[in-house]
Each structure stands twice: as C-alpha cells, then as structure tokens.
Specification:
Elements (H helix, E strand, L loop, with lengths): L7 H9 L4 H4 L12 E3 L26 H9 L4 E6 L14 H9 L3 E6 L11 H18 L6 E5 L9 H15 L4 E5 L2 H9 L5 E4 L8 H7 L4 E8 L14 E6 L21 H9 L1 E4 L3 E5 L6 E6 L3 E7 L3 E5 L8 E4 L3 E3 L17
Parallel strand pairs: 1-2, 2-3, 3-4, 4-5, 5-6, 6-7
Antiparallel strand pairs: 1-8, 7-8, 9-12, 9-15, 10-11, 12-13, 13-14
C-alpha cells in the first residue's frame, strides 16, 4: 500500500519507473534486483513509544503494524534484522526483539536475523570482561525468543577503529566464541579494518560493513570481496516503504555478497535457516553501483532538470544502465528518482575513495 500523498520528487520517481512497475508488483524472482534484507532498531508496532516495555514485551508493542509489514512483503523484503540490546530491563521503544515480535514477523513470512548492539560507540567498551556479560545476555535472549542453534548472532562494533584497541576487540570475540561454544555462528558489524582484524584471527564467520565510507579500511575490505553484508542505506524514513505508515519508522537496507554463500544465519518459523537464491543475490549485487563523482546529480530526464543527488562512495540501485545515462533509485524503494550520467558510476567491486566534499546525503 502506497502513501496517500506524494511529493513532486516521488511523483516523478513513479513516472520514471512506470515501465518497471509490473515487475515490482510481483513476488521475488531470480532476476529481481530489489533489496530483500533490512535492519531496524525498533519493533514494528504502532504503540512502541507509549510506555517502555519489559524484555517480555509487556506494557507496549501490543498493536502490530500489519500495513507496514505487508508493504515490506509486497516490495520483496524477506528478512528483517532485529536487536538484542541491554536496556536495564526497560525495553525503550521495544528495541529488544520479543517472542511476540518474532511470531509477528514469521506470520508475515519474514525471516528473523539477530544482531546484538548496545553502547556500540562507547570508548574502551569491547573487552574480554565485557564479552562475558554480553554473551550471557545474548544466550538468555536466545533462550527466551527461541533463536535456534546454528543461526547467527551478529555483534555491532558501531564505531571507527580509534575508540577500542585492537587487542581488546580480539579478546572480546575470543570470549564470545568461548562462551557460545559453537551453539551460534558469530557475525561482526564493524568498519572494514575491524572486520579484517577479526576475520584474520578466525574469531567470526560473517562480516557486515556499515554505510560509513570514511571509516578505516572500509574501502579496502569491500573491494577485497571478503565481506558478507553491506549496509548500503541507513535511516530511511521517507521512501515509499516507510512514509505514511502510522509511526516514525527508520529502516536500513542491506545487500549480500553473492560470493560469501547464500545465508546470513536468519531463521524461519520452523527454526530452519533461511537461504537465498544465488541468482537473486547476483541480481541485487549487480544492480548496485558506487557514486564516483563528488556529487551525482539526478535529473528528471536525460539532459533535463536536476531534482536529486547522491554523494561520492555512496550507493545507488541502477534500474536501467546505458552507455550515457542510468535510471537510478537512491532510496531503495524500488522506484527511480531519475537519470544520472553513467560515467559517474562504478560497479560494486570498485568502491571509490571517499573524499570530503560539499555534498550532503539527502534525507530519505
């Protein structure tokens, strides 16, 4: 279901994408390049801000946002990342996923992936001692919500490399690995340099890179092909998946590396691990291109009027790519914002160096 009112830019986007709309209305197919994995910090309930909920989901998060979840499914989304997060037993905005939410997502046909993140940007937070506390919390949450063994628990180190010493981060993941004792696979969400460090130490199985192109080692790690997931758009609240959905929604979107396997450790209602069609993964990855211009102007038509933009080392979804012009979607709702010059785009394996410019990412 689309929002009742559209901005001028959104109206132009729909017009530019008219030829693609029949495909967008269908379910996912091997050649479908629409995004299919998202992460969201808060639960999809209409009353999540009313009263802080306990870890069992009581007091709030009792009114499911079915319209939003149906919209996700209709747009090709099949997997949602949700959080384990210490909140002193007051589940503010229902950040901690509960059994109630697990069932809601599964009933809408969505696989659930788990990421632990709490105070991820705190200085000196990642130590062996803290890992024991965090791992115990994750194991307890896994027991409560019924997370199946063999699935993946991802850990967010949500900062550039300067805040936490390498030796401490390695100690942290050694302890997590020891305490998990093989029950769950371990994933890391972190800057490229941190992913490289933990990968080479053999302390995690999967690696998720944030949309932070200036963070240390991110370009090198992405271009190496060793990544598993890339969080290619963050804090989306105004595209056609989120706008007008009855609450303040923020989602991030993610793409999988087709060379890294066909699973991220998400699980389905029956407890099985969600796998993905490799042709679909190749279609999604192949349609994502980097912006290599300092500022990429996007026009209502080739040689027309500029109406949007994207910045260097950010990503766009290319819906149609010719020798001179590309039709691009910059907010991952499957509809184009307009046309850009093809010479200003680079394929996924060629992330350009981030550079400070006067370009500011658009609110999406």
């Amino acid at each position: 279901m689309m929002p009742q009112s559209l901005s001028r830019r959104q109206f132009a986007a729909l017009a530019a994408s008219a030829a693609l709309a029949p495909r967008a209305a269908l379910g996912a197919s091997p050649g479908d390049s629409r995004i299919h994995v998202i992460d969201m910090a808060n639960a999809p309930f209409l009353d999540r801000d009313s009263v802080p909920a306990g870890l069992d989901g009581s007091n709030a998060c009792t009114r499911p946002n079915h319209r939003f979840l149906e919209t996700l499914g209709n747009a090709g989304i099949d997997t949602v990342f949700r959080y384990y997060s210490d909140t002193n037993n007051a589940n503010l905005n229902c950040k901690n996923v509960t059994r109630r939410e697990r069932d809601l997502l599964h009933d809408h046909g969505l696989a659930l992936a788990i990421v632990y993140q709490f105070e991820g940007r705190a200085k000196d937070r990642y130590t062996g001692a803290r890992a024991r506390q965090d791992a115990a919390f994750c194991l307890e949450r896994a027991r409560v919500i019924g997370q199946p063994e063999g699935s993946t628990t991802w850990f967010g180190v949500d900062s550039d490399t300067g805040l936490n010493a390498d030796r401490d981060v390695l100690d942290y993941f050694r302890e997590v690995r020891r305490i998990f004792a093989g029950r769950f696979r371990i994933g890391l969400y972190a800057a490229g340099a941190r992913c490289r460090l933990v990968r080479e130490a053999g302390l995690a199985e999967a690696f998720w890179v944030p949309e932070a192109p200036a963070w240390e080692g991110t370009r090198a790690f992405m271009n190496s092909g060793d990544w598993t997931l890339f969080q290619n758009k963050t804090d989306i609240d105004q595209n056609l998946l989120t706008r007008g959905m009855g609450q303040q929604l923020h989602i991030d979107t993610d793409i999988l590396n087709p060379s890294a396997g066909n699973s991220i450790g998400a699980f389905l209602k029956d407890g099985s691990i969600r796998t993905y069609d490799k042709a679909r993964l190749r279609a999604v990855a192949g349609a994502r291109h980097w912006v290599k211009a300092g500022k990429l102007d996007i026009y209502d038509e080739p040689d027309g009027a500029a109406q949007a933009h994207a910045c260097i080392a950010r990503m766009v979804h290319v819906l149609d790519h010719g020798p001179k012009w590309g039709l691009v979607d910059i907010d991952e709702d499957g509809f184009a914002e307009g046309w850009c010059r093809s010479r200003d785009l680079a394929p996924l394996g060629q992330m350009p160096a981030w550079a400070r410019t006067d370009c500011k990412p658009m609110d999406i």
